[in-house]
Automatic annotation (TrEMBL):
<feature type="domain" description="AB hydrolase-1">
    <location>
        <begin position="40"/>
        <end position="324"/>
    </location>
</feature>
<dbReference type="GO" id="GO:0009086">
    <property type="term" value="P:methionine biosynthetic process"/>
</dbReference>
<protein>
    <recommendedName>
        <fullName>Homoserine O-acetyltransferase</fullName>
        <ecNumber>2.3.1.31</ecNumber>
    </recommendedName>
</protein>
<dbReference type="Pfam" id="PF00561">
    <property type="entry name" value="Abhydrolase_1"/>
</dbReference>
<dbReference type="GO" id="GO:0004414">
    <property type="term" value="F:homoserine O-acetyltransferase activity"/>
</dbReference>
<dbReference type="InterPro" id="IPR008220">
    <property type="entry name" value="HAT_MetX-like"/>
</dbReference>
<keyword id="KW-0012">Acyltransferase</keyword>
<comment type="pathway">
    <text>Amino-acid biosynthesis; L-methionine biosynthesis via de novo pathway; O-acetyl-L-homoserine from L-homoserine: step 1/1.</text>
</comment>
<comment type="subunit">
    <text>Homodimer.</text>
</comment>
<dbReference type="GO" id="GO:0005737">
    <property type="term" value="C:cytoplasm"/>
</dbReference>
<feature type="active site">
    <location>
        <position position="289"/>
    </location>
</feature>
<keyword id="KW-0808">Transferase</keyword>
<dbReference type="GO" id="GO:0009092">
    <property type="term" value="P:homoserine metabolic process"/>
</dbReference>
<dbReference type="InterPro" id="IPR029058">
    <property type="entry name" value="AB_hydrolase_fold"/>
</dbReference>
<feature type="active site">
    <location>
        <position position="318"/>
    </location>
</feature>
<keyword id="KW-0486">Methionine biosynthesis</keyword>
<feature type="active site" description="Nucleophile">
    <location>
        <position position="135"/>
    </location>
</feature>
Length: 342
């Protein structure tokens, strides 16, 4: 699908008090809005994905999948701060003409939601049938459902939380330290900090997978090597793969936004904030998720009124929310049949 660009009509007031001039949001849509305008599905993507949800979630979005464009009008927008078309740290500042990470403001999950809320208004979508997201996408989804409870009919949160944990922030900081240790980060060019980003992704992978996943896929078949281990090659490969498609400046910006996530900030705490949600809600946890452990999804389900909770096993750990399409489809079908049974 073509990627559309939406420029917000006004500067965007950010949570830290700065106004972001002429912000843009890149987005894609699939399917048609029906006459009743009640078939909207909005997908919020995770850390390094983009607006092309049919590409990165092919098991859930596409012909014959649970979210089939023949039935649904599906929207996915790139987050503010990313390097896939929405305004980010390497976007030239329209006033100064410069693109420098150092001058780019701190973004929060609420700022990302504010940009997508402006896009929702632009598209004239008064109601959204289903808002769905995992990980950083789930952080946006829950924040949005707290902010605009009247808009969302159904909310699906996967492998996410109400407030980013100390453990998650520590992982993110370890990754940022790897990036800052790369002297080329000062360049403010797309390849700046690439070696640091490779190391950051290798660290991140440890939090996205599990002991069992590495044991199953990366154990040596023989006892021969004393060096150049399979698991080590996998770490390098994954680092290279991300550095080839992403930039270090967006990575730092987005991980800082993730750290900022706290639905209860200024709202009397997490429980009070979650009690505002009016959407029928399904929360999905992954038993092997070491980054967003199921205790975090149980907390969401406990405080969102009437929420349902489902738990899946995955050999992948946290990244199971991207890969376990069959299990997620099963839970969505059950959720749909329960919420629309009468
Ligand atoms: C432009 C864009 O692409 S943007 C959108 C793409 N990305 C996103 O949307 C972000 C979300 N997606 C992701 O995070 C990931 O793609 C996931 C989690 C869904 C899947 O991760 P993957 O890396 O594909 O899976 P996995 O961990 O099994 O690794 C498989 C890869 O590692 C390689 N690999 C496996 N073991 C080793 C090893 N020992 N040494 C070297 N390479 C290895 C495989 O050959 C395979 O390579 P390939 O990706 O080039 O086919
Ligand atoms: N694997 C995900 C991050 C984990 O939520 C991504 O690269 O977007």
């Amino acid at each position: 699908m073509p990627t559309h660009q939406f420029q917000l009509p006004q500067p965007l007031p950010l949570e830290n008090g700065v106004r972001l001039a002429h912000p843009e949001v890149a987005y894609q849509t699939w399917g048609q809005l029906n006459a009743a305008r009640d078939n909207v599905v909005w997908v919020c993507h995770a850390l390094t994905a983009n607006a092309d949800v049919a590409d990165w979630w092919p098991g859930l979005v596409g012909p014959g999948r649970y979210f089939d464009p023949a039935d649904w009008f599906i929207v996915c927008a790139n987050v503010l701060g990313s390097c896939y078309g929405s305004t980010g740290p390497l976007t030239p500042n329209p006033i100064t003409g410069r693109a420098t990470f150092q001058e780019f403001p701190l973004l929060t999950i609420r700022d990302m939601v504010a940009a997508h809320e402006a896009l929702r208004a632009e598209l004239g979508l008064a109601r959204v049938h289903t808002l769905i997201g995992g990980s950083l996408g789930g952080q946006q989804a829950v924040e949005w459902a707290v902010q605009q409870p009247q808009v969302f009919e159904n909310l699906v949160l996967l492998a996410t939380n109400a407030r980013h944990s100390a453990w998650g922030i520590a992982f993110n900081e370890a990754q940022r330290l790897a990036i800052f240790a790369d002297a080329t980060f000062q360049q403010n060019s797309p390849a700046g900090g690439a070696a640091g980003l490779q190391a950051a992704r290798a660290v991140a992978l440890l939090s996205y997978r599990s002991y069992q996943a590495y044991d199953r896929t990366q154990t040596e078949p023989t006892d021969e090597p004393l060096t150049n281990f399979r698991a080590a090659a996998y770490q390098r490969y994954q680092g290279d793969k991300l550095a080839a498609r992403f930039d270090a400046y967006s990575y730092v910006t987005l991980t800082r936004a993730m750290d900022s996530h706290h639905v209860g900030r200024g709202r009397g705490g997490v429980a009070a904030a979650l009690s505002r949600v009016r959407a029928r809600t399904l929360v999905i946890g992954i038993t092997s998720d070491g980054l967003f452990p199921v205790t975090e999804q149980l907390l969401l389900a406990r405080h969102v009124p009437g929420a349902m909770y489902a738990e899946m096993d995955s050999a992948y750990g946290h990244d199971g929310f991207l890969l376990e399409a069959a299990q997620i489809t099963h839970f969505l079908e059950r959720f749909h049949s329960l919420t629309y049974a009468h």
